[in-house]
Fold this sequence. Notes:
alpha/beta; 2 domains; 10-stranded mixed beta sheet; 10 helices
Amino acid sequence: MPLKDILVHMDATPQSVPRLEAAIALADAHQAHLTGLYVIHPPHIPGFVRPQIGDEILERQARLLAETAEAVETKFRDRVGTESFPYEWRTVEGDPVHVLALHARYADLAILGQRNPNGDDISANPDMPDRVVLSVGRPALVVPYAGTFPVVGERVMVAWDASRLATRAVSDAMPVLTQAKHVAVLAINPKGGEDGHGDIPSADICLHLARHGVHVEAQHVYADDVDSGAMLLSRAADEGMDMLVMGAYGHARWREVVLGGVTRHVLKHMTVPVLMSH
Length: 278
């Protein structure tokens, strides 16, 4: 089943341009309806401070926020207006995480941006995109803040550890996997046994994918001395993949933040768009 509804988060940063290009590539491949969403997030002003600012400054700030939203909308419409798939634009005021999660629940896929630690505005928000991925209940495609991605979903690597989250990610990514030219399922340091990967790592999930018509290859690697997140990104780069599919935050998020973790590493160091499910 192809994607029918795609939501892309737009903002005023340069990083939203490659994010939009990735969204267009997927919307064109699936002839999906593409929704561009801009969130106006007025700065929090304590009540005791507001009387000291003055109405003129507040009105000027509101006008600037509205003008920025209009400029981003124009950029979106100018780029998407030449495409053959249907589209729409939404400007909503509120908390970015809450607004994005709410609107993304009515889409097959939400396309978000990687946090830019050197950026400004929402691109540097420490809650993005983690909290959206954790709360939306839909798959999210996180696009790196560096690079361009005009082709997405033709060569896909799936991170497989036989867990619930990896299973959910594979299911959520099925519309992309069935249209991909090549899919590799990679198990890193696979374990045997009933709760592990079986006799041949990744073979069972690859058989399932093949029955769906996916052109898939089973891979595994043993590298105890290399971080799993680093290994995933390295293999994806070496094999020319344009998308990585993985489950997000297998442990409690506070443990991932304190102890590290594959999700945290990938979100920080990603070099290709990553489809995540939680």
